[in-house]
């Protein structure tokens, strides 16, 4: 149990079939919310849907495609009967300083966030909340993933602007910036064998001596979405076990 009560709340998690998105969706469902998720891959989407319980909704969606994003959020709002909480979690993981890297990062990390938010807000009422998933990469330069780091920094700034714009409607907007998160099938688990030097270097930079888990990020998303954070808006909370301290 998460310790939160979201009974009666309607939650949309854009990018909710794996990792942080999956753990967030399941945590909301276990706390009593009705949840909708989307992702590109049907298999993981179906597997996560099965864990969300009665009343949950899922739809295959390419979050880099404007029409698909808006259609998904509209459908989720209709199925759920409205939207109370939106979590913008998807990433294109366009890390390289190339046309392809920038296009993937901008289309998914940035434009999917703005498009999903723009579509969801008319279905939200005062007391609603949006949480944008950024990264600690957005707080520092990166030679390895320059495009990814830049768009995550953009999301941190956009979260502030979005919070200011929606405050008069009673909608709070916050962000979460995870550090390196490890889960089955995720990029860091893969790097443990494919890039052990990189993995061990990152592991050594974390004071607690381990990578984070998706559940630890999900807990902060639920807090920011809850009434306990009712006077918190425009902030991005770092969840990294002290990784930025190194």
From TrEMBL:
Which InterPro entries does this chain map to? Answer: KR_dom (IPR057326), NAD(P)-bd_dom_sf (IPR036291), SDR_fam (IPR002347)
User: Ketoreductase domain: which residues?
Assistant: 9-179
Q: Name one GO molecular function term.
A: oxidoreductase activity, acting on the CH-OH group of donors, NAD or NADP as acceptor
The record ties this protein, via SUPFAM superfamilies, to: NAD(P)-binding Rossmann-fold domains (SSF51735)
One Pfam entry name: adh_short_C2
Q: What biological-process GO terms show up in the record?
A: fatty acid elongation
Family label: Belongs to the short-chain dehydrogenases/reductases (SDR) family.
PANTHER family reported in the protein's UniProt record = BLL7886 PROTEIN (PTHR42760:SF135), SHORT-CHAIN DEHYDROGENASES/REDUCTASES FAMILY MEMBER (PTHR42760)
Name of this chain's protein: SDR family oxidoreductase
- This protein's species is Rhodovarius crocodyli
Q: What is the lineage of its organism?
A: Bacteria, Pseudomonadati, Pseudomonadota, Alphaproteobacteria, Acetobacterales
